[in-house]
Amino acid sequence: MICLVLSGSTIEENLLQVERNRPYIDIVELRVDLLEESELNQAAAFPSLIDLPVILTCRRQSDGGSYQKSERSRLALLSTLLEGSFAYIDLEEDVKKSLAEAQAKEKGITIIRSLHNFETVIADIYHKIAKMAALGDIPKVAVTPRSVNDLITLFRVKEELASVPQKSVLGMGDFGFPSRILYKKMGSMLTYCADKPLAPGQITARMMKELYRADQVDERTHLYALIGNPVLHSFSPQIHNTGFHGIKYNAIYVPIPVDSVRSFFALAEMLKIVGFSVTVPLKQHVLPYLGQITREVKQIGSCNTVVRKRGLFSGINTDYYGFLRPLEHAIETQSIQSALVVGAGGAARAVVWALRNHGVKVTILNRSAQKAQQLANETMASYDSLEHAHRYTEVNLVVQTTSLGMEGEHMGVDPIPSFDFQPSHIVYELVYRPRVTALLKRAQNGGSTLIYGLQMLIGQGMLQFEAFTGYHYPKRLEQQLDLEKE
Ligand code: NAP
Predict the structure, then answer these.
(1) Any idea where the domains of the chain sit in the sequence?
(2) For the chain, which terminal residue's Cβ has fewer other Cβ atoms within 10 angstroms, N or C?
């Protein structure tokens, strides 16, 4: 079940939240600790105003809630509100023999026995859950994983506590994100969403239902991941989950923040992950774990896509081919003979190798001369400093691969201000946020042909999709993706 946590301070606002999210949810949690004092007298009637089961919760500050008065008055409030037709009441694990508990039992309202930990995943988590279940209540544990190993502990709940049919397990924070989406893989009966996410890792009910289809995950669902750190703001789940749905493939793609590649491979075995994308900073770190790599991965020294084939993890680099995609025609017709590549980082390695493997003469300009020299030596290219950019206006292609120009601290910065853009140039920017960088604006004014970072991003995503599924990405969806970002 997808549960919407109602965060409104009034009953009216909560009713609006239910209305906005109604197509995506199965149950709601009324957080009376978030309601204004003057609204409390209407809270008991809330379940009769909507057509969904309601969990009654009044969260203490020590458990991440907002209720500030004494424990005695909190329990008294809950007891009064039980007049209403709530389906569940959430009572914390340390609340013993309260009137609210007795009343709930008498009225047949199911008790969710909850335990929160905002620091860690408690060591005796399986024992705790079993103990809470032994009381006849539904155990709920919300803990904070700090590593992939902690996440493994959570996913083992399903196997360790197979005898507890109804339980709610939740990993909070960034490392907990996969547990929210794959709640069914933990044997959890529900996952919590918000109308406007407030905590890290929280998402909207609409994303949970429409993007991830989390409630449809079953034993046959194929699991794909994006690993790296950070990964939660990536555009890739949009590309792949939309594509899987488009070809009616029972599969889900989930971002997993990873602190240790070794632990991730243990998780991949456990969850039977069949393919994954790799992003910063793990593109090199995954290499020792791969049974097979392509020539490009070997040359570039980094891998961004891994597929499990006959039990073996096989690594490819779709940045390489994604970069080439918008240039296919120009390369085929040999209209690109020479290129200036700005930057010598990870992305530049894919770019320079792709161009060199197609016979293009390359000059690398980079802030750090040592890195430029190293890449130039490996690829038989030449190199120079950023300040000398103006000397290379005879090239056919300029590729910008540094993080300068990107949203944030580098926004508006042009790495080669001395370069004079002309109509003869094709200018390829790898930065995709913002869509038009300071460098692209100048290139546009100079009459150059522009290629946007988003084209490569989507291109490499399409190729990854093909590697994952064996199918081409549906054309109509590709166009939609492009439009969404415009
Ligand atoms: P990276 O390995 O960290 O390399 C960063 C590059 O930027 C290096 O050449 C670095 O120069 C340069 N740089 C950073 N700060 C600088 C500064 N203040 N002044 C001058 N140069 C600076 O990163 P990456 O993985 O190559 O990614 C680079 C960019 O490409 C990012 O914006 C990323 O989002 C984008 N990208 C886009 C796609 C796509 O599909 N469109 C794919 C991959 C990457 P030094 O060597 O001197 O440090």
Answers:
(1) 2-217, 226-317+459-485, 329-451
(2) C
